[in-house]
Prior knowledge:
Blueprint (H helix, E strand, L loop, with lengths): L12 H4 L1 H12 L1 H7 L6 E5 L3 E7 L8 E6 L2 E6 L22 E6 L4 E11 L2 E8 L14
Antiparallel strand pairs: 1-2, 2-7, 3-4, 4-5, 6-7
Amino acid sequence: MALLKFPTKAINTDVVNPFVNSVFDNLFNDSFITDRLVSRIPAVNITELEKSFEVELAAPGLEKSDFKINVDKNIISISVEKTEENVSEGKLYSKKEFSYNSFTRSFTLPETVDYSSIDATYENGILKVMIGKKEDAIIAKRLIEVK
């Protein structure tokens, strides 16, 4: 019995209709479509420290006044309402990717949170929200002696 190796690609379809393949390649590789499919919600890092929680939100290009942080019961919401200013000043763009949309990120806070010690800073495109823990929630570290 003879073994024949078949090519991994089917019959060369580019020869049959090269226009169809180039249209689909251009359609799926077009940055306009892929930009619209990518989520516009900023990435978040949440860290639990000994005495607090730290929420870091990557939001470059914004200002401190753009952020609105609300605490309602056990939910903290971070939102931005930014509209795009359409000032072209005689420029003709071949591609424009600078745009800021509104977003809201909400997180459920644990019972150990001290609601009176929540602070926020915005520096170098990173919004940091520090959420303190209650005194009784902070675990005291100690060395246990083995007897």
